[in-house]
């Protein structure tokens, strides 16, 4: 009895299956920016506004003195905040990429000081996933978060993200954290990046900490920073400059602190993004250029439509924004896809 090799069976199976011709040509009007899932030979250079002070290669982190006892700690991609008090330290967020450098930075700021409070900006593991290690070395510290964050963490049951010991609730009902001689004000403006994502305001240093909403000098992370509520993000970005008289913005990502000008620039980009997506949705015909046989496949029809909307959106934005925001070419397709989706399901209004 003859047996076939695995390769032989695979060849016979492939021959028995129908073949589908695929054309991988760009849509009309596409820019030279590589679309998702296409290999990039190189990316656009980082612009000056996206650059940050150097990180000490021996330490692997940088401490930026924001004044009045407030400090930003970053390893170049993530950011968190430490506030020094007369009785210890208040730590805001615990990103795993910074990890044990948080404790080293705390020792640099106040040798021998205990951490009395840990504030969670929101529940995402990439921003608070080192919390358990901080708690292990500071077992009596309070962990403070909005109730929405506590609810998410209770469902997650993640030992790396201990449940908060103190919570506050409501929208636009500020909660004050008093730690010896320092005061921080916590506020939740409503759903945005994630339910429970709060503003942390340190008035003495005029520092606002707001995570995963503003990306100083950079294109936002993909899909509007994976926003839970895109209209909520628009509302929040549109109000924070008027709401807080801040000088420093600890935004959670990239290597430098932000400013009011960074907020204004991102709001301008988001407004243009909304307009470009809205224009493309209004001027793109359904099923244009498709093979007649494919028009019976509704998923294919919408894939074709959304792709062409996205291509037009990207082409409209590139001349104005490609040379302003670092990483524009990396995530602009994601932003246009997220924006057209939000307009279609949430409504077109800004």
Describe this structure in words.
- The protein is elongated, with a radius of gyration of 24 Å.
- It is 36% helix and 16% strand.
- It is an alpha/beta fold.
- The strands form two sheets. Strands 1-2-3-4-5-6-7 form a seven-stranded mixed β-sheet.
- It has a domain at 48-259: Ribonuclease Z/Hydroxyacylglutathione hydrolase-like (Metallo-beta-lactamase, Chain A).
Question: Could you give the count of β-strands?
Answer: 12
- The percentage of residues in β strands lies in 15-25%
What is the mean pLDDT?
Answer: 94
Fourth-tier CATH superfamily name of the domain at 48-259: Ribonuclease Z/Hydroxyacylglutathione hydrolase-like
Second CATH tier, the architecture of the domain at 48-259: 4-Layer Sandwich
Q: Which class best fits the helix and strand makeup?
A: alpha/beta
Distance between the termini: 72 Å
Number of helices: 10
Helix content: 25-40%
What is the structure about, briefly put?
The chain is built from 10 helices and 12 strands. With 350 residues, the chain is of the alpha/beta class.
Top keywords for this entry?
5-stranded mixed β-sheet, 36% helix, 16% strand, 350 residues, Metallo-beta-lactamase, Chain A, alpha/beta, 7-stranded mixed β-sheet, elongated, 12 strands, 10 helices
